[in-house]
Amino acid sequence: MIKLLYFAHLREALGTSGEKIELPVGVTDVTTLRSHLALRGEAWSVLTQSQSLRAAVNQRMVGTEALIADGDEIAFFPPVTGG
């Protein structure tokens, strides 16, 4: 199982703040996870359409090539801006 968390506008677009799912066969990194989730339908395509979408694995900021494994917590969120 992996734990997924969705923040900010992703949470509203997807209608959930998080979920637990079985790690799909062949999904080994953040990129393939995003692609797998996008297959769920229109609202989920936001995970692959946004170039600026950020990810964290086990509360550590990572790039799209970061490996994931069973038991991980993966969070998706838009970039943070401030002033």
N-to-C span: 38 Å
Computed structural class: alpha+beta
- From the 3D coordinates, which CATH architecture would you assign? Roll
What assembly state would you assign to the polypeptide chains in this entry?
single chain
Strand content: 25-35%
By CATH reckoning, the class would read: Alpha Beta
The CATH topology is Ubiquitin-like (UB roll)
Number of helices: 3
Helix fraction?
10-25%
The CATH homologous superfamily is called Beta-grasp domain
The total strand number stands at 5
| Uncertain stretches | none
Number of domains as seen in the coordinates: 1
H and E string: EHEHHEEE
Mean pLDDT: 92
Written description of the protein model:
With 83 residues, the chain is α+β, with helices and mostly antiparallel strands. The chain has one domain (2-77): Ubiquitin-like (UB roll). 23% of the residues lie in helices and 25% in strands. The protein has three helices and five strands. It is globular, with a radius of gyration of 12 Å. The model has no long low-confidence stretch (mean pLDDT 92).
Summarize, please.
The protein has three helices and five strands.
Please supply descriptive tags for the structure shown above:
Ubiquitin-like (UB roll), 25% strand, 3 helices, 5-stranded mixed sheet, 5 strands, 83 residues, single chain, alpha+beta
What secondary-structure arrangement, pairings included, does this model have?
Blueprint: E1 2-6, H1 9-14, E2 18-21, H2 30-38, H3 46-49, E3 54-57, E4 60-62, E5 73-77
Parallel strand pairs: 1-5
Antiparallel strand pairs: 1-2, 3-4, 3-5
